[in-house]
Amino acid sequence: MVTENIILQNEQRFVKEHKIPQEKLEKAIDDAVMKLEKQIIEHGTDFMATFSVDNKYDFGANDNWICGMQTGTYWLAYELTGKEIFRDVAEKQLKSYRERLDNRIKVDDHDVGFVYSPSCVATYKITGDKEAYQTALDAAEYFYNRSYSVKGGFILRSAIKAQTNPRGCRTMMDTLLNIPLLFWAGKETGEQKYIDAAISQAKITEKYLIREDASSFHHYQFDVETHKPMHGLTFQGYSDDSCWSRGHSWGVYGFPIAYSYTKDESMIALQKNLTYYFLNHLPEDLIPNWDLIFTKKDEAPRDSSAGLVTVCGMLEMCKYLPEDAPQKKIYESAASQMLEAVIDKCTGDMGVDYDGLVYHVTAALPQGKGIDECAAYGDYFYLEALMRYQNPDWNRYW
Ligand code: GLY
């Protein structure tokens, strides 16, 4: 729980108004769209692996946590360009989401929202498709029944492992981008249990995963029997005491989404503290290192996706802040500078071919997976950030 009011240390840098030149923005979108068209021509409706190897994607079935974001990237491309190729493939992929749920393929964990929000919820929001709507609602129901601990008030990392293995009986920062599926289902159906579960998850995250100085633990351990809180720790970060960049960025984006449903004013201050912590720990060139313990350029592998999620979180919160809120101008400027930094330093000619829309993404460094690679969440949040920058009124998929 944050107890300090976090001061933005590099305020001078972010109070200045900043705009990405329109031509540069349009080129960034055109380049991304061209890459996606090539991807579809070569791989059709196949889904990419969780991260690239040597910046090249392998393709296969709809069976991992990032699949929804691939479909979401195609929807973003469709909304940006109106090109039918993107709508066509996103719609063709829908069947696999139904099959995945019906056959219980990797849906027993905390990431069900990542799978079903940018795919089925997005489809419904854009086209009104009834089957996508039903699949998203069924996924929310399954997620709630399977992964929400009523006695603990939190979403389990793994519903299968939680009964026997302490590693399953944890909750994590990532879940803040999974609870939008529950908020959405609650709003659509009027079922209060979904909203209550999502709020409880947000509150437990605030209480246990966010530290006094507004940094965050990646995971929090609960007792396997009682589901009572025990201690924070990391999984993808540098150490239990450090702050894993992408995990923290899920907080910067997750709380504005939770705020949009709850109008709980305390989330505005909380998100400001989280955001200022993130900005205070950026290297000079504004591309975050994979853990915020590293604050210097070239000190550690990067995670451009953490920067992009933070950009989306700041721009989402700007929708709810009054014009005179001091952090609004800072968010607008920081988002613009950080997005331009990604365009400049994580796209374009890198001397070798790269399959993603952006590079310098780090998936899970302690596990030796996807270090300085491409990944669907880098691609998705890059296009979402570009979309938000172009069109601040964009109707989000989360
Ligand atoms: N599973 C979420 C992440 O790696 O960010």
Word description of this protein:
It contains 13 helices and seven strands. The protein has 398 residues and is mainly α. The protein has a single domain, classed as Alpha/alpha barrel (Glycosyltransferase), CATH 1.50.10. It has a three-stranded antiparallel sheet, with helices on one face. Strands 1-2 form a two-stranded antiparallel ribbon. Strands 3-4 form a two-stranded antiparallel ribbon. Strand 3 (148-149) and strand 4 form a beta hairpin. Helix 5 packs across helix 7 and helix 11 packs antiparallel against helix 12 (326-346). Bound molecules: glycine.
Q: Characteristics of this structure?
A:
398 residues, mainly alpha, 5% strand, binds glycine
Kindly summarize this structure in a few lines.
With 398 residues, this protein is mostly helical.
Uncertain runs: none
What average pLDDT do the residues reach? 97
What structural class results from the helix and strand content?
mainly alpha
The count of helical stretches stands at 13
User: Could you tell me the radius of gyration in angstroms?
Assistant: 19 Å
Taken as a percent bin, the fraction of beta residues is 5-15%
CATH secondary-structure class: Mainly Alpha
How much helix is in the residues?
40-55%
Order of helices and strands: HHEEHHHHEEEHHEEHHHHH
